[in-house]
Write a structure and sequence with these properties.
heterodimer; A: about 120 residues; alpha+beta; Arc Repressor Mutant, subunit A; three-stranded antiparallel beta sheet; B: about 300 residues; mainly alpha; four-stranded mixed beta sheet
């Protein structure tokens, strides 16, 4: 799988932030406020995102209008599912600070900490 | 046949007896680096021993030297090997193929597991590029999510990931302690240790050594990272951070145990324990180095 490019992320961020469908020209105009970029580059990457299923597009007049298929929250949820889900990815993929635990175990953790704090205060 | 019996006995000791002792050894949690080394040594020893044992069982009358050279020549690696015929007979081929399979099985799983892990990391990195905010201030990527979570994505494009929920739950100094812990995982390339143990446990499912090595490696690398974080941060800070992150991570429905390791770690972080005696450490290192060589001595001895 190819790595998701910075420009792909930039385009998605703008479309999410605007919350409305937009053309490649709209995105380009916004990016050009910060740095120069060719129209064809933005258009190509927008089409790549469309082929990946991340953007929907339809024609308005003569221009293609793009719109994200999923919200940012949905992607965040998918990310967190991978990171915290009960069915973790293969070993060596992610290393979590503390693993998921039962309420009893979390209570035991807290009382162990309290016990030590009391001892150090006494 | 005695050689084969000795080797089988040694394989049983290494594969079943020693793991249950090592996983309960008191010194292991006081010297996690040493303990990880010992587990790796046990896995290597088991592969060596099982290979030689099977070889001797199948081809009891041939001495192992001829067999090993024969194995190499069968693979086209050695010229002038004493294997007489150009084509080995079926029992001979079997006697070479079965031990070779014992070596190739974990190696094959290692390749498969690392490939799968790479792909999964790539998928995760793609999502992270999409929704994460790089925060150079912390050297981490922040994800806008309420559940407190901190983890690292190891490998070439390594990232430390922290959720908004964790940022809210942790104080500034707790956050730095947690980040030091995650950095230790990345700097120590701990995912490779996970990978080795995982490949071994898939190659030999049901073997006590495989189960223990996987569980203990996971716990021990956490302890190694805790120790690294404790070099720069106070004990109570790291311990409180563990509690804060753990408390927010509790699933609404209990999904079986899994957090027992966190409690062991917390107690260990809070109550400093002396490193094992120098003699113990030297003994463990010596045993780990000698253990894989013993089966060769048995197989090639007079």
């Amino acid at each position: 799988m190819r790595q998701l490019g910075e420009l792909e992320a930039e385009i998605m961020h703008r479309l999410w932030a605007w919350g409305r469908p937009a053309t490649a020209r709209d995105v380009l105009t916004d990016i050009n406020k910060q740095r120069p970029l060719a129209y064809s580059t933005v258009k190509t990457v927008a089409d790549i995102l469309h082929h990946k299923g991340m953007l929907e597009r339809h024609k308005e007049g003569r221009a293609w209008v793009y719109e994200p298929t999923c919200t940012r929250q949905q992607y965040t949820a998918a990310l967190m599912q991978q990171a915290l889900g009960s069915n973790p990815d293969p070993a060596g993929t992610l290393v979590s600070f503390v693993e998921r635990m039962t309420p009893d175990e979390a209570d035991a953790l807290r009382s162990a900490l309290r016990a030590v704090k009391r001892r150090s205060e006494a | 046949m005695t050689t084969a019996a000795v080797l089988v006995g040694y394989a049983v000791v290494v594969g079943a007896l020693v793991p249950s002792l090592l996983s309960r050894a008191a010194w292991a949690h006081r010297a996690p680096v040493l303990a990880v080394f010992a587990w790796q040594g046990l896995m290597v020893t088991f592969v060596f021993t099982a290979t030689l044992a099977v070889y001797h069982l199948l081809l009891a009358d041939h001495h192992v030297h001829g067999g090993l050279v024969g194995l190499l020549s069968a693979c086209g690696l050695a010229v002038g090997a004493p294997w007489a015929g150009p084509v080995p007979s079926l029992p001979q081929a079997l006697a070479l193929a079965t031990p070779a399979a014992i070596v190739l099985l974990p190696l094959g799983w290692l390749v498969a597991c690392s490939w799968r892990a790479r792909r999964a990391r790539q998928r995760h990195l793609d999502l992270l590029t999409l929704v994460g905010d790089p925060t150079p201030e912390y050297g981490a990527t922040v994800v806008d999510h309420t559940t407190p979570a901190v983890y690292c994505l190891p490998g070439r494009h390594c990232r430390v990931v922290i959720t908004r929920g964790a940022l809210d739950a942790l104080s500034e100094e707790q956050l730095w302690a947690v980040l030091a812990h995650e950095r230790a995982h990345i700097d120590g390339r701990h995912h490779l240790l996970h990978l080795l143990a995982d490949a071994f446990s898939r190659a030999f499912p049901g073997l006590p050594l495989a189960r223990h090595a996987k569980e203990q490696t996971a716990l021990l690398v956490e302890m190694i990272a805790d120790d690294r974080a404790l070099r720069l941060h106070p004990r109570e800070t790291l311990a409180t951070a563990m509690c804060e992150v753990a408390a927010g991570r509790v699933p609404p429905v209990a999904l079986g145990a899994g957090g027992a390791g966190a409690l062991v770690r917390l107690r260990r972080v809070l109550t400093p324990q002396p490193r094992p005696h120098r003699a113990t450490s030297l003994g463990v290192v010596a045993a780990t180095v000698v253990a894989p060589l013993l089966p060769l001595v048995v197989a090639c001895g007079p």
